[in-house]
Specification:
401 residues, alpha/beta, five-stranded parallel β-sheet, 17% strand, disordered N terminus
């Protein structure tokens, strides 16, 4: 395990050494021995399937504290708070973390609605809201919200990739289900852009509310509209319901589902893996379930980390993989700050990321950020579920912004 952890650290972006800083300059939450960071996560409530986000950040920084003594000699204290994916609770918890606990930054929080609810507050306070697992046009609006940087495969970009792919299917009759909020609307906007003049192939678009008990009626309406291609921009619970309902009524369209609801353990197994065989999603990172990466150094390092620090979690959960990378980026940003641990310098380091390699990104992918661009990842490839794992069916598809 010792060798595996050394390999892990070598595989991360932390290999880049921070320049020595003779002058110490500290912001809130920082001392010679500690850096306090905050996070809000749905440990309970309807989105608790994403509680992995919190466990990952806590586990990753625990590993760094034990193996490296923290970052630049300072232990990382993670204050991870349950907001139950309810914006009012997020606002309350974030205010406490910033004003009461005086955290240095908010890092690796989750939820589009919840992070949108605190975006204006954090930007007004000039508190970094970075590497959040959320996406909407406002959250990527670095001009008006320069203290907000997502680490998410932009929903618009992902939707556009599906649209581009379907332009090669001129006879497709497309039905779209989307969540009636910023998440679903962002996916839909990108999808229609990717289709371009082929958007006339869409025979029905229907939404559902996050609070709806089921999406059964929506699935029935899409089938009745004659759709032979089903594009489902849904989160975990609704996605599993849609998969089950389509199977129950014998509807077998070409089925696309968003990567945020492509978890084998969190969605496909609850839906019944037999009902998910053949569905298509996207991937922008390596999958632990894909034999292609069995001997990949970064994958072996990730698996070693999961075995030691998160033994009760499924390493094949897609949420685990991308939150692992997001936490790597958070650690890299702190590392690069050296002894100039001010909030302003943290943002300067993050917006200077150029061609940053993360071992679990797909080959050809790099993280690039700037003061005018907060889209860290711009491409992915399509994958199909074969009953056991996701298999690639396309080359890397990149879109511009």
């Amino acid at each position: 395990m010792r060798l595996s952890l050394i390999a892990l650290l070598a595989a991360t972006a932390l290999a880049a050494a921070a320049p020595a800083q003779a002058q110490k300059n500290y912001g809130p939450g920082v001392s010679d021995t500690e850096i306090r960071i905050g996070q809000t996560v749905a440990y309970s409530g309807p989105a608790s399937a994403y509680a992995m986000v919190g466990r990952m950040q806590v586990g990753y920084f625990k590993m760094l504290n034990e193996v490296r003594g923290g970052i630049n000699g300072r232990k990382i204290t993670v204050l991870s708070t349950d907001d139950a994916s309810a914006p009012p609770k997020t606002v309350e918890a974030t205010r406490k973390l910033v004003e009461g606990d005086e955290v240095f930054a908010m890092m690796n929080s989750m939820g589009t609605a919840t992070q949108t609810a605190v975006q204006k507050y954090l930007n007004g306070k000039k508190v970094p809201q970075v590497f959040i697992y959320a996406s909407s046009p406002n959250l990527h609006d670095i001009k008006d919200y320069p203290w907000t940087i997502p680490f998410a495969f932009s929903f618009e970009i992902e939707g556009e990739i599906y649209g581009k792919y379907l332009t090669a299917k001129p006879d497709a009759r497309i039905g779209v289900l989307y969540q009636n909020d910023d998440v679903g609307k962002s996916y839909l906007k990108g999808f229609m852009k990717g289709l371009g003049d082929k958007s006339r192939q869409v025979v029905k678009v229907i939404s559902y509310e996050y609070s709806d008990p089921t999406v059964d009626s929506q699935v029935l309406q899409l089938q009745a509209a004659g759709a032979d291609t089903f594009v489902s921009f849904s989160t975990n619970k609704a996605q599993a319901q849609a998969l089950r309902k389509a199977a129950a009524i014998g509807w077998k369209p070409m089925y696309f589902l968003s990567y945020v609801s492509s978890s084998i353990s969190g969605v496909l197994r609850p839906a019944g893996v037999e009902n998910a065989v053949g569905v298509i999603s996207s991937a922008w990172f390596k999958s632990p379930n894909d034999p292609e990466w069995d001997n990949d150094k970064a994958m072996l390092a990730y698996l070693a980390f999961m075995k030691k620090y998160m033994p009760n979690d499924d390493p094949g959960d897609t949420t685990a993989v991308y939150t692992y990378m997001g936490t790597q980026l958070a650690a890299l940003a702190l590392e690069r700050c050296g002894n100039d641990l001010t909030r302003e310098n943290l943002m300067k380091q993050i917006t200077s990321f150029k061609d940053v390699e993360l071992g679990l990104l797909l080959p050809g992918q790099r993280v690039n950020l700037s003061t005018t661009d907060s889209y860290p990842v711009r491409g992915g490839r399509l994958v199909r579920f074969d009953g056991t794992s996701w298999k690639p069916i396309s080359e890397l598809i990149t879109v511009s912004r």
